[in-house]
Amino acid sequence: MITYKQYHIQRVEHGHKRWTARITRADGQNIRTILPASERPYLDTKPAASAEEAEELAKEGIDFGGMV
């Protein structure tokens, strides 16, 4: 698990060459999204071919994804 800005990113393998990254807030609070408006304890990225790609998707989501 790595910490990026105010979030934790954990790489998760779902079968052979199928990775996602789970994003949680470092302070333990729920993540609020703007579109659609919701609040959840974590968010998962879409599947990627490698752990590194999944991590990059998570970072992009944190930077540009409308999470609060």
Question: What can you see in these coordinates?
Answer:
By secondary structure, the chain is of the alpha+beta class. It has one domain. Helix content is 21%, strand content 37%. It has one helix and six strands. Strands 1-2-3-6 form a four-stranded antiparallel sheet, with helices on one face. A two-stranded antiparallel sheet has the order 4-5. The chain starts with a strand and ends with a helix.
Q: How many helix segments?
A: 1
Strand content: 35-45%
pLDDT averaged over residues: 92
What structural category characterises the helix and strand content?
alpha+beta
Secondary structure: elements and pairs:
Layout: E1 2-4, E2 7-13, E3 19-25, E4 31-33, E5 38-40, E6 43-44, H1 51-64
Antiparallel strand pairs: 1-2, 2-3, 3-6, 4-5
Précis, in short:
With 68 residues, this protein is an alpha+beta fold.
List descriptors.
68 residues, alpha+beta, 4-stranded antiparallel β-sheet, two-stranded antiparallel ribbon, 1 helix, 6 strands, 21% helix, 37% strand
